[in-house]
Amino acid sequence: MNGGETRAERIVVRGVVQGVGFRPFVFRLARRHGLAGWVSNSSRGVIVEAEGPAGSIDAFAAELAGEAPPLARIDEVAREVIPVDGRGPFEIRTSRAEEGEVTLICPDVAVCPDCLREFRDPDDRRYRYPFINCTNCGPRFSIIEETPYDRPLTSMRRFAMCPDCLREYGDPLDRRFHAQPDACPVCGPRLSLLLPANPVERTAEIVSGRRYVRMPEEVAAGIDRDPAAVARWLLARGAIVGVKGLGGFHIAADATDDDAVRALREKKARPAKPFALMCRSLESAKKIATIEPEEERLLESPWAPVVLVAKRGDPALRLSREVAPRQRTLGIMLPYAPLHHLLFDDHLEALVMTSANVAGEPIVSDSDEARERLGGITRTFLDHDRAIVNRSDDSVAFVERGSVSMMRRSRGYAPYPIDLALDGGRVLAAGPELKNTFTLLDGSRAYVSQHIGRLDSRATLDFYEEMVEKFLGWFGTDPEVVAHDLHPDYLSTRFAAEFARRRGLDLVGVQHHHAHIASVAAEHGRRDRLVGLSFDGTGYGTDGAIWGCEFLVCDLAGFERAGHLAYVPLPGGDAATRHPYRVALAHLFAAGGVGLAQESLPLFPDVPAPELDLVLQQTEKGVNAISTSSAGRLFDAVSAILGVCHETTYEAQAPIELEALVDRSATEPYPYGIEDGPDGFEIDAGPVVRSVLREALDGVDAATVAGRFHATFVEFSREAVRRVADGAGTRSVALSGGVFQNRYLLGRLREALISDGFEVLTNIAVPANDGGVSLGEAVVASEVARLERT
After folding, report:
1. pLDDT of residue 202
2. pLDDT per residue over 1-39, tens digit each?
3. Helix, strand, coil distribution of the chain in percent, nearest 5
4. Which residues have a Cβ under 8 Å from the Cβ of 567 and sit 6 or more positions away?
5. CB-count burial class (<10 Å; 0-12, 13-18, 19+) for 363
6. 166-199 pLDDT per residue, tens
7. Which residues contact 596 (CB under 8 A, 6 or more apart)?
8. Rounded to a whole number, what is the distance in angstroms from the first to the last CA of the chain?
9. Which of 127, 643, 661, 699 lies in the 20 to 30 Å Cα band around 216?
10. Following CA atoms 181, 185, 187, 189 in sequence, which dihedral angle do they give, to the nearest 10 degrees?
11. How far, in Å, CA of 640 to CA of 643, rounded?
12. Is the pLDDT at 216 greater than 50, yes or no?
């Protein structure tokens, strides 16, 4: 024990410190140092009153941050000397709420090694219990209704703990002390298997891919006793099964069964988009993918996202070709809920685990909704009775040159705040239409919502509005400003306007591509001028055109459009994005007139001739055509000319499949032009398109052409950056927008710019795609408001 005079301090620890085993950690630490006093949760964080020798208190305070539990995140340890009053033995006190203070909420995290060890131990009372958890793991965000995070304020309140669980819950020295979801087979949630059959006839036929399977009586007898075993039996025979997890349902199928995966594609109306996989173990994942060390760490992390990894050229486990057609990568996650571990056996090593939702709608989260909305996909569900209060899709990430990049930030990450090295105001940012998230900015802390999705339906809007109200309540943020995208028809724009009107708040419109770059600046704590490369498919421009390949000079408050891809008329507007051959004809027309476009027609043999003629007429006459500078549409055009993708069934399909085709040894760029225009320089892609067409007609290998096209994109971007930087007086470049989720393009361009002496900044915690736009909107609106006040 450290000596010195007796002293007492009140210590407030702020951060993610509730529901993560922090109070028992404090209790054990105080006992170790021989301190008196108490610890309690509050809306301010964790409050400690400690009394004892001054040296002991100093050591105790230092170790609060240095030895914190694995899921804790310490943002601040505030100390205040208080009177010594002979406090009793150190104890843990009941939580208390304090008006105006905020408690952070831990996201749902994967089952920890200690719980998994117990789960696999036949002698443990929680052996194979699908809801095993402790203070270091398990559900948090998905079950919370109000703060502070205590069991009566979660969906676990209906499960009264048995004496054994109560004893653990009340023992500060136990790993499950005040673990709010603590449960066991005696007192906790239970599994059930919902079948399409009459419950009296347990041996009814079950749809299995395109086959039917009659369940033997000995299997059917286990429906109530071991629902997971029956679900596993069905999966092994090609059945499609809905599985209720942490943040919602998945649709599962054996990833090695061609019939099952093909049937799932047909039933889900998802003909081409890759399916996410769940592998039994890292060893199983390595049978089908080449996994680098940083990817391993990410897969096995508590956050457990879907990680994009390279397909093995010589897989030891044969996957169905229908899992990820025309892709070089697989999206793989490991079992993160204990229930998931029950789905695998010696035969089942890889399952398709795709979000259970109707296209464009939120993930399904309860059994009644599942039966109603998913009946056309499956009528067999492995269900449980722990309610999901807050639904959340799986997060998706990839590793590029040792750096983790998010593609979707949701389960495992949200609602962790993103701490910015900038002090802002209080803003609600409504976000865009695609890949929507919203952001609450409160000073230097940004609460970015989980993935909401495509905000163009009543169901998604309801989900969006529900989560906005919850975030406002949980985090006590009273916005002063509401930010929105400039597009007047987005539902998020309309929501922002109505929200601001009801509350009498200022409304700030933020240009989409400026928001992309601002999201990067905010993550890196930058208020200075940057060169911004904002490349994506669609963003409403200040001139009413559709922007998408933008070279900006900007800070948080504003931007100048230094240059862009030359405009091309898009026949049919947004509808053209579903038919890349239309975009190809538009680019060819812009590059060489109707004659060049007609020369390309043999490349589209699957498109009826009358339809091709109609699109050519629309393009030539400019009927129902909107001008676009979109980088995404140029990728569409090249993909269509090369025969990679003429019609899309999911967002960015044509560029994604084009990237997968690239011959990485083909690095010679095509010619292009850069000319001064009325609003900055314009990059003329006409020579590129003509070159691609000529080589396609000459039968040059499509992979070679795809490689040279990517090299061209890098080269003209590099030249444009040099031009912009010289005039802007900065050597810092920010890259954002959905196109930069093309890993090959991102890596090549970043290397080229660094070799030219530029500092290159990219998104870190939020996606480069539209999932990060709301963060950018928030910091721009905050900066605009700040400057108006000064």
Report:
1. 47
2. 456 799 999 999 988 787 678 888 999 999 999 999 999
3. 35, 25, 40
4. 545, 627, 628, 629, 682
5. buried
6. 999 988 889 998 899 999 999 999 999 998 765 4
7. 588, 589, 690, 693
8. 53
9. 127
10. 60
11. 5
12. yes
Span 611-661, pLDDT tens digits: 999 888 888 888 888 899 999 999 999 999 999 999 999 999 999 999 999
Identify the residue whose tokens are 């069934």: 649
Say which amino acid occupies 685: A
Q: What does the pLDDT average to over 587-611?
A: 94
Residue 565 near residue 683, CB atoms below 8 Å: yes
The structure tokens listed for 25 are 């950690």
Is residue 378 exposed (0-12), middle (13-18) or buried (19+ Cβ within 10 Å)? buried
User: 307-338 burial, b if ≥16 CB within 10 A, otherwise e?
Assistant: bbbebbeeeebebbebbbeebbbbbbbbbbbb
The CA distance from 113 to 70, in Å, is 12
Is 394:451 a contact under the CB 8 Å cutoff? no
Residue listed under structure tokens 């219990």: 129
Find where tokens 């571990």 sit.
341
Closest by alpha carbon to 39, among 141, 147, 134, 177?
A: 177
Reading the block at residue 640, the tokens are 């269509």
Domains of the chain with CATH codes? 6-92 (3.30.70.100), 105-188 (3.90.870.30), 191-384 (3.90.870.10), 417-524+769-789 (3.30.420.360), 547-552+563-762 (3.30.420.40)
* Beta strands 241-244; 249-254: pairing state: antiparallel
Tell me the pLDDT tens digit for each residue of 356-405. 988 778 999 999 999 999 988 998 999 999 999 999 999 999 998 888 99
β-bridge partners, 485: 510
Residue 757 and residue 726 in contact, taking contact as beta carbons nearer than 8 Å: no
Residues 388/139, Cβ–Cβ less than 8 Å: no
